[in-house]
Every structure is written in structure tokens, then in C-alpha cells.
Amino acid sequence: MRRLTWSQLRFRRARALALLAGMLVAVTAFTVLTAASRTSQLRTIGAVTAHFRTAYDILVRPRGSRTALESQTGTVQPNFLSGIYGGITMAQYREIQQIPGVQVAAPIAMVGYMMPSVPLTFALPTAAATGHGRQLYRVTTTWVSAGGSVRIPQAPSYVYITSNPLVGHGAYEQLPDGSKVNVCDGYGLSTTYPPFSAAMQSSLWCSSRVTGMFGDGSWGALNARRPGFAITWSFPMLVAAIDPAAEAKLDGLNRAVISGHYLSEHEGPSFEGAPGGESTFPVLAADSSGVGEYAAVRVQRLPNPGRPPELDPTGMQADAAAAGGTVDEFKITAGQAYQQLLSLLTGSGYRNYDNSSNAYWNVGPTTYRRGRGGGLVAVTVRNSKSIWSLSVPGLSGPPMDEAATAYRVIREHENTNQSQVQAIPVPGAVGEFDPGKVRAFDPLSEVPLGPYRPTAAAPANAASRRALGGHDLLPSLNLGGYVSQPVQLITTLSDLPFIENSAVFTGELHAADPISVIRVRVAGVSGPNALSLARIKEVAQLIAVRTHLAVDIVTGSSPAPVTVNLPAGAFGQPSLLLTEGWVKKGVAVAILSAVDKKSVVLFTLILVVCALFVANSATAAVRSRRQELGVLACLGWTRPRIYATVLGELALLGLAAGVAGGALSLPLAAALQLRVLPGRAILAVPAAVALAVAAGSVPAWLASRADPVAAIRPPVLDVRRARHLGGVTGLAVVNVLRTPGRSLVGAVSLAVGVAALTMLTAVTLAFRGAIVGSLLGNVVAVQVRDADYVAVTATVALGVLAVADVLFLNIRERAAELAAIRAFGWPESALGRLVVTEGAVIGLAGSLAGAAAGLAAAAEFAGQFPARLLVAAIAAALAGVVITVAAALLPAQLLRRLPTAQLLAEE
């Protein structure tokens, strides 16, 4: 038996070499591809581990604060603090601090927006101070935001200059004859401007070249030699309270202080005056506002007013409406106004201009609806005019921006301290901090800290980029705007009772439960390992059980781009398509789970396709020796002996293939930048033998069970099954069905490769969307793509070679039949088309089955069935058919070499 085995390998070298080549490819591919799969897995685990830790592990919010959209999408909105003003008690905070495993618990208590106003003064041209007689100037201001697309005009202001003295605080002009004319006090221009309830009064700046501004000498930097006007900025400033020690541990806020000193929990307010005076509570002020807005100012000189008797309201209306010549134009940025405000925060000058004690405001969250394409559309709201109890908008009340489109409900806490018993809270800066110096965390696992930076809303299409001037949508002075301002004033939890004082302010105040959120970092977390995940989960469960608050685990999260549409709004606001980075929870765990599944599936598919390839090659070798094995059976060879002979040949070929494949895998893996250990290469030898024996068991068993008489009889189609065929396609289908087992092996081999291709393509898309849809998912998808696609490409190649081998074997077995067809006059092109069509039929069946299986596996990874997965499956199926048809061209060329005359003579 050994001599027969050796003689078969020696004298039937063509088939032995073909089988050896197939096994060599399979063994080498298996060794290299498993290394590729392991390499991609290790890279993914390394990437996830490197970006696993977020700024905090657990986000605790009041019950009911998690939106339905967050629950549906498994995300946390970047402006999660919006609309949460209290809801967590100090007792609950202390309870969380005492939970075992809590390393840091950092609370934030959102207070609301105070509205201080600051005037920025500007001098008129020199001619105004050095001229003679009366002069009148008109000042028009337009408030510009959203990259220049939103422009809100303010009612004009006027500057009146005279050479006569002004008396009565500027209300009267004293004429040379000693009489007085009511000029400034009688200036009655006004216009209504929605949504404000009060008329929008135009301001009049009166200056005398003798007695100065308003007849009082100077006003700010303006005087008789430098007459001018002021542009008043009503600047919303968001106030929040923290635990200074906890915040320093969490994000290093104390190291971001650039002037003054850091907050102390024991630094309380200072009181001035008798009861009913002011309480200055300490704040840490941001050194920049984060507001992207400017005021465009134009100054025009109007015709000189007439005689003093004409300076009545009616006459002044006519003078103000006259055409004028522009003498100056300039811009004032929000940054300039904010710096002026900061300079006042540390001195008594702030109290001279401050209106924040009259009221403060809260704003609610943005709500969304689903658009036609399934995207998010921000819902606009209309706020009541009654929320602005302050006086003239744009002058000493709310900013002009409050007339723009709003997306948030605004609530006012009005000062009703009529008895003046309680002290009025006024912020006083003890230091400034730079938000950019707050500890920077990994951008791939970044979670919003809450107070320090505005939500990044980037343009998502070309039209939005043009509308925003190529920049992100920044906050404006509009409290109800889409992008909220960051916190500009930070105080301490101990100072909250002086601000949220029901004896001073109206509305729902949270003195009993002032904290909005608590960010928790868990001790002993080292990476995405089972122990660390268990520690975080245990702490989160304890917090939920002991406090009954809403708890979200954000460790292993990553920003996920979410597209939001802002419909066109007032004052030129265009329709904007924006992208925001919402926090996708559980990204790291999802990636590791997916990559583990992917590695197992790819490993299994590689093993299956290699086994099928060897089985198909072994079947071909056995069938080519069908008559020889039949003769041996007729000579008395037993079935076990025939079985052992065939299996021994395959085992010997497997041994040779294992040695050669293991040696070849080392340089090949090095060329592909993969790591194959020598031990793994050595394991290829027993693996190859085992694979050959396992894959060849069925063909060997079939060979031993064959009927000797049937084995030596040429295969002839049963007459009862004969039927008329309609052409090349019909004959090709019949030929495929004549050998169902062999065709099935080829189709299944190709199906495995196409399934792997479909799954990997779909999973790559899912990493970018359905599975993770996050920055970390995108990075991981890029890292694993090369190694996995090398594996899948080889798997598809093995499947295609299996189909080609089926076609080769079919041609050899039907050589006489094909020769007869040629003799009947079929052209070479028709015969070639017949073989290619057979390959296309097998390829189509295998590709469709593989695409369906790969699609099901990818949908299992993604947890859903987005349209992009179907597109990937269709593309993979088409690729499988095209490649198979191309591979069938090679067997078709074998037809030209068939010796027609010899085959017909033998037949």
C-alpha cells in the first residue's frame, strides 16, 4: 500500500502537484490570515485601551432629565446642562462622596444668566469739538452674528452738540439772552420693536462745547473737547457653582487661573451698606466670552438743526430723518466688550453700570423633531414679552439679539425686593481663568465637562460653510439661541443661598436641591478590562440605588457626529445644516465585542474555506482515479485498504504542504507587516496534516464505497432524464446540476469568501455608523481595514480557485462529450461561453448565498439593519460574480487543447 501511494505521487505528478499547490495555498493563507486577524485584533484592543478613559466615568443627573432622544440613541447631548437648574440635594451629593470606589465627585449647580450692561464710548470726529453752532449726528448700530448671516438693526441714536451751555443735566440749552430751550429732555423719538413690550426709545447724547457732556463736564471718557456717544452692550453672563476642591481634582481648574486666585469654599460674600444693600459673592471669571458677535456702527452727520424754537419733538423728528453724510464706520466685537466688562468686575465701576441685580434668567433645553430624511431638526420657540421686565432693549435691558429666532424657552427670575430687607447679590471677581487651560482630555473619548466650552456646531455642507464664513456656529447674545454660551462666572456651592434667594427673586428656585449634575470618577480603573468595567458598574448601581437619580456610564464613550438642521429664521438667518459631537455611550465595549466576534468569524471562515478547497481538490484527485480505484476493488482490495491508501496520499501531501507553507508564511507575513511567530509557523505542519486528513476523509470514504463495476463504466446520462435544451444557458445549468456535490462545494467555497467580504465591508461601514458612529470607531475602522482585507481577499481567492477547479474537472470528465459537440459544428466561442456560463451559475449561487450570510452577520454586529449594509451586500455579490466569470476564462481556454479526433475515437 505504501508503494502504491508513493507510485501515485511519483507517476501522477500533475494531479499530485495540483493538489499539493492547493494545499500549500490553503495552509499558507491560513497561517498568514490568522496572523492578520490576530494583528488587527491586537491593534484594535490597543487603540481602544489607549483612548478608553474619559474625564469622568459616571454622569449623575436629576430624575427625568435624560431626554427621550438620548434614551433612543444611547447618547448624551453635549449641552447636557442646558435646562437643568437644580434637582440634586446636598445630602445626595454627600451620599455619593461616601460610596466606596468613588475617587472624585464633582458637582455643578447651574444658576442662570445675569445681564450686566457695559457702555463702550467713542468720540466723534474732531470737527464736532472745534466747530461752531449746532451739529447733529446719527448713529446706527447693527448687531451681527452667525458668521455675518444674522443682522439685527437697532433704532438710531443721536448726538446733539451746541456752543451754548447745557444746564439741568443736559435737559436745557441756555441761549445768549438767558432763556432756556428744552432740547435733550424733549427729544421724543421712539419706535416699537418686537418682541419687546416697551417702545424702543432712541437715545440722545447731548454735549456742550462749554459745559461738556450733558452739561456736567464729563461722562466716562467723553467731555467738552471730546464729545461722542456710547454703544451699550447688555452682556448675558452664565453663572454656575462648583465644589472648588472636587473640580480641581477632576479637571485642574485651579491650574487654569491666570490672574487673582482660585476659589475657596469658605470664601463667602461681602456685604456693603445697611440691609437692602449689596452682597458681593466671589466669582472666578472666564478671560474670554466665547461669543461670536460684533456691532457694526455707522456715524452720519446730519444738517445743522435750525433755530432753538424749532427744537421741539416735531422739529427734531424732521431733523433726524434727514439724509446725512457718513463720517465714521467701525466694528465692536463681543471680545472687546467682554474685556471692558471684566475690567469693571474687579472694581466699583461695575456696580455703576450693573443691571444684573434686577433679574436673572434660566433657559430650557433644545427640542428636536425628525425630518423627512430621519435627521434632527431643531424646534423653534416663541418666548413671551413678559420675560423682559427691564426697560429699553438695546440700551439698558436685554440685547437686541433677543429679537432673533429662539430655540429655548426663557424664564425670568425678577427682583421683587421692594422692602429692601435682603441684600442684592452682585458678582465680584477674585480671579480670571483661561478655559483653554482647563485639562485637555483625549479628543477620541472626550465627554463634555459642562461649564467651560460652548458646544461645537460645525457646518455640515457647503451652503452652511458659506453662510457661516467657514467657521463654526458660535454663541451670540441671544439667550434662546441654538448654541449656548459657556459659563463665564463660576462661584462656590456655599454662595448659592445668597443668589437663589426667594426673598429677592421670583420663580422656581432650587435652594433645597441646587445641584444640576455630578461627574464621578471611579478609583482603580485601568482600561477596558473586566475588573475595571465591573468597578464602574458597581459604583453606578450603588449611586442609582442610594440616590434614585439618573445615572449614565460614560467611560469608553466617544464623540459621535450628529447632524442637526436649523430652519431659516429671522433677520436673515439662513437654513443651516450643522454637525455636533454627541457622546455615544459604551463605544469601547461595543468595539471590543465587535472585534472579538469579527476575529472569531473570520478565523472560522478562513478555516472553512481552506477545508473546502482541500476537500474539493481531494475529490477531484479521487474522481480522476475513479477507474483505477474500481480496478483495485475488482482485484480484491478491501474498502479499508482503499480508504487508507487515498487518505495516506492526502496526509503525505498535507505534510509537504505544511512544511512548505510554514516556511513560506514567515517572509510573506513580514512583507505584509504582520507578525507570525516561528511557533505558529511550525504549528502549520500538524495543522496541514490534520486539515488534509479531515478534508479528505469524505472523498476517501466515497472512493472506498464506490461500486467497482460502475467505477470502470464511462458515465452516461440516463435516457429517461434526457430532455431538449434551449441553448448554451440551459445546457450550462444542466451541466452544473449533473454533479451537484461538486458544484455545491465550489459554490459554498465562493460563498464563504463572499460572506467574509460582505461582512467586513458592512462592519467597516457600521464602525462608522451603526455600530459606533464615533471618532474612536472611525480610527479603529481605519486601523483594522488593511489586515482584515488581506485576509478576506485571500479567502475570496480560495473560493474562486475552488470554482475554477470544479470547472477544470468538469471539462476533463466531459472531454469526449465536448468533443462530440464540437464535431456537430459548435464554434469555439460557443463552447467557451458554455464553460463561462457554468462558472457564472456557480458564482451567482455562491455569491448570493454568501452575501446573504454576510449581511446577516453584519446586521448582528450592528444591532440594526441600515440601508448601507444592503448596499455593501449587493456590491460584494456583484464582485463575486464578476471575479468568478473572469476566473472561468482560464478553464475555457483548455477547450482549445482538447484532441477532438482522439477523444471521439476512444468514445
Main features:
alpha+beta, elongated, single chain, six-stranded mixed sheet, 907 residues, twelve-stranded mixed sheet, 24 helices
Q: What is the number of helices? A: 24
The low-confidence parts are 186-201, 349-356, 391-395, 767-773
N-end to C-end Cα span: 32 Å
Q: What is the gyration radius calculated from CA atoms? A: 41 Å
Q: Helix amount, in percent? A: 40-55%
Fraction of residues in β-strands: 15-25%
Number of strands: 31
Judged by helices, strands and strand pairing, the structural class is alpha+beta
Average pLDDT reading: 76
Tell me about the largest β-sheet.
12 strands, mixed
Shape: elongated
Would you spell out the secondary-structure blueprint of this structure?
Blueprint: H1 2-11, H2 13-50, E1 58-61, H3 68-73, E2 75-76, H4 90-97, E3 102-114, E4 117-123, H5 126-130, E5 135-145, E6 150-162, E7 166-167, E8 172-174, E9 180-182, E10 190-191, E11 200-201, E12 204-208, E13 212-213, E14 228-234, E15 237-242, H6 244-251, E16 257-260, E17 270-272, E18 278-286, E19 293-302, H7 313-320, E20 325-333, H8 334-345, H9 349-353, E21 359-363, E22 368-370, E23 376-378, E24 410-414, E25 424-433, E26 457-459, H10 462-467, E27 487-492, H11 496-499, E28 517-522, H12 530-547, E29 550-553, E30 558-566, E31 576-584, H13 587-624, H14 626-634, H15 639-671, H16 678-705, H17 708-712, H18 728-738, H19 740-768, H20 775-813, H21 815-823, H22 828-862, H23 867-894, H24 900-906
Parallel strand pairs: 6-12, 15-27, 18-25, 23-30
Antiparallel strand pairs: 1-28, 1-29, 2-31, 3-15, 3-21, 3-28, 4-14, 5-6, 5-19, 7-8, 8-9, 10-11, 12-13, 16-25, 17-18, 18-27, 19-20, 21-24, 22-23, 26-31, 30-31
Helix pairs in contact: 1-2, 1-15, 2-13, 2-15, 2-16, 2-20, 13-16, 13-19, 13-20, 15-16, 18-22, 19-20, 19-22, 19-23, 20-22, 20-23, 21-24, 22-23
